[in-house]
Design a protein that fits this description.
The chain is of the alpha+beta class. It has helices spanning 9-21, 25-35, 43-75, 104-115, 124-129, 157-162, 182-197, 202-213, 219-229, 232-250, 258-263, 282-299, 303-310, 312-326; strands at 81-82, 96-100, 118-119, 131-135, 143-147, 168-172, 175-179, 199-200, 272-274, 277-279. The chain has 14 helices and ten strands.
Amino acid sequence: MRQLQSWRRDEFNDLLSLAQSNHVVVRGLSEFLNLTSCPEGRDCLRWVQTALDAERSRIAVCLRYLHSICKCFEDSGRDITVIKSLDHWPDFGSDIDLYTGCDAAEVIHLMRRHFNATIAKRSWGDRLAGKWNFIIPGLPEAVELHVGRLGQTGEQGGFASSLRGRSICVQRGGYSFRVPCAQDRVTISTLQRMYRHFYFRLCDMVDTAALVDAGSIDFDDLLASAQAAGIWEGVATYLTIVSDYVESYRGRGLELPGFVVAAAKFGGRDIYYGKGFLRVPILPQSARLYRSQLAGVVGRGEVDSSARLSLFPWLATAAMLGQKLTGSDKGIW
């Protein structure tokens, strides 16, 4: 590996930007220091330490606000679960994500009254998915609250309603939080990566591999819950992609049960790198997963979820056209 001391500042800034977009600043830079040689007092060492200090300070502020929000909801008798944001610990996401089963009007009332929060402009996708983004004075990160539903079109009502009852308590930065169990973490990551964004961050690979390696996932329970949510094939594919990617770097993949590998529709060989992320091909791979999900909810007679999912291609098409015409999909996706 090239020594850090020989890097230019612009090269280090590029590395830092990549680490930030992949939510691995703390883990990445800490490990980078262990793998490189940089004499004490050199500029390179100061760059790394300054970046680490800044990121840890940002995370400390996020945790303080996150704890206050959770305490506010719990003291008011409302359920609240932290999703995604704490999955990357000791790193932290670029915003604060939470799920609650209470009414949207209650959410708005609590956020306005206790945090003087304002509601960010909602896109078509936000409205369909039941998402609300709040801006809190003093907090640079947005607070994204998923209200009663999960999934790009809000199709995951049943799965969302079971989230709190299956959640666990974790300690992070001196605070206690309720987070999804390991199986539900994988399911939420699958919804985000395989059914919405169609790309992986490095943190997705690292976080999921750590769960599997630690033996934290009950695969039988994951199978049952993912089948009930109608995305078992997507979950199996997600895990297989992570396993293949990990194998390409450490020489061995994840220890996945045979029924997981058998259910996967494609693997790591189909993903590719583009624009800073590992991309999942939309056609035909992701399109097949979508059709399977839609066929499942239609077959089970889930009218509301079927109607929501049927809007997904139109929403995606509108977002793609908006991106091409204006350079942004804001207001749509």
